[in-house]
Amino acid sequence: METIRSTMMPVPLSLNRLLEHAGRQFPQSEVVSRLPDKSLRRHTYSDLYRRTRALAAALRQLGLRKGDRVATLCWNHHAHLECYFGIPAAGGVMHTLNLRLAPDDIGWIAHHAGDRFLVVDDILLPLYRQFATAHRFERVIVFRFGGTPVAGEAATTEAAAGEAAAGKPAAGRAAGAEAPPPFEDYERLLARAPADFEYAAHDENDPVAMCYTSGTTGKPKGVVYSHRSTVLHSLSCALPDYVGLSCADTVMPVTPMFHANSWGIPYAAVMLGAKLVFPGPHLHPEDLLDLMQAEPPTLTLGVPTIWLALIQACEADPGRWRLPAGMRSMVGGAAVPESLIRQFARHGIRIAQGWGMTETSPMGSLFFEKPELRGSLGEDEWFARKALAGIPGPLVEVRIMGEDGPCAWNGRDVGELQVRGPFIAGSYHGEDPDSGKFTGDGWLRTGDVAAIDPQGYIRIADRTKDLIKSGGEWISSVELENAIMAHPAVAEAAVIAVPHPKWLERPLACVVRKPGAALEADELLRFLAPGFARWQLPDAIEFIEAVPRTSTGKFWKAKLRERYAGWEWP
Ligand code: ADP
């Protein structure tokens, strides 16, 4: 019998296709960016399309070759979005640098990735200078918020574009010192780009972007996304039972574009023609609330710490802001306290918790309501379920690996959450594939301890490194934190394991009171008692000024563990 073959076209999945579609179908959709002076700059998708292709053409003219890494050191704004599509369109690989890391670490990461060019915001040039000697870029392209290029040819030198942007006089250089890389002005490059641009030919598995894990629990590792993984991730995010994106949405990505591609949402939003509102460098709660009034979003995304601060600012000044009616918010990257979900619900805002990692592109799971649950849950059960990490998307396989093999989905048995799928990393850039992060049978070991319930919802109990081992039992720091943050006088809380002579480790709760609130340890312990066994309760409560944050804005428990390493139990 004749063998049968698929009759479908073997057209590779391509990010360029998404850009073409957006440019043709949604020329009037908008991209709004908040500038450092807090004014708003508006572009249409027609501008986005033209400028992105101009960027790609300009990069080629500068000598960009296929596979070359172009780093970005930028806030969330339209030019960063142009890099998202323009660098891959030229055949390059966009590498988003995390501007909240220590300069030495940024330099190390840029070097490890082998970045050739850099696109940098003018207001971040002082940061760039602090790691410029750790890694030499061949060219530095400066995005100037002022917009107008510096006059004259000298604009392509560091003296004019760089120092002028930083408001400093050009510095003389010692003879023999390595020449600084030439500086280019972003707008000038675009204005001069050749008009006859054609996309670089590519395979669907060619790389488009890379991002390093933020190293909360170890050395940063490079994850490299492909055309294929990015397109599949975008399509998957957009599904109605997932993020449910459409061209009618106004999306405000508060998650930095250097943190796991702002959860992939900029790609998905452009694919569908959604309006985008970027907060630029202004991420304080009051600034975000102001922006929400000016350009009301229908969808926002960010880590829980940002939303905690935002709702507290909003409620501390009643009547000043109104949260946009019907807005939905995707919150993840760390456990989302149930109290936060309830607080937003009182303002008519739906929070959907997601779980993911830089390695998972990053959307691994997201909360949505299955029809069989509809109407069957009381209010408390409903909120408890919303505090779970949701359901994996259709292309993400999950399993819970216990000591004796995969665990049943019974909601009780916990083990390591392992994942696999076409937008999940199977290795790290420049690392031994046998790094211990991947199983022999091809799954990513997430380092998260979780259970899955019979309905398929994932409950993240903790990070392996954050679990508290008390005697022979494990205590979930996440559950304690959620319960503490439900107390009305608590602004934020982190629970850590502290070494204990008898029990190995015991929980210490670090609690931040709301401004002006009076709360003592005894009262808090009484508040927690009904929900926990006695041995699960923290042995001590420390009231602190603020919980330290990681470079991606999450609670930095490793820092707290360091602080309390010498803690003496009473
Ligand atoms: P980092 O490891 O530096 O935080 P990532 O941003 O890649 O870098 O974080 C991934 C990790 O964040 C996950 O492995 C998990 O521990 C945590 N995380 C993400 N979403 C959630 C969630 N909804 N609940 C609990 N933890 C989460």
Textual characterization of the structure:
- With 570 residues, the chain is of the alpha/beta class.
- The protein is built from 17 helices and 26 strands.
- The strands form 5 sheets. It has a 9-stranded mixed beta sheet. Strands 7-6-5-3-4-8-9 form a 7-stranded mixed beta sheet, sandwiched between helices. The chain has a 5-stranded antiparallel beta sheet with strand order 18-17-19-20-21.
- A hairpin with a 2-residue loop joins strand 17 and strand 18 (405-406).
- Helix 2 packs across helix 3, helix 2 (45-61) packs across helix 7 (186-192) and helix 11 (285-294) crosses helix 12 (304-316).
- The longest helix has 17 residues, at 45-61.
- Mean pLDDT is 91; it is low at 150-176.
- Residues 213-217, 260, 332-336, 353-358, 389, 446-448, 460, 463, 552, 554 line the site of adenosine-5'-diphosphate (ADP).
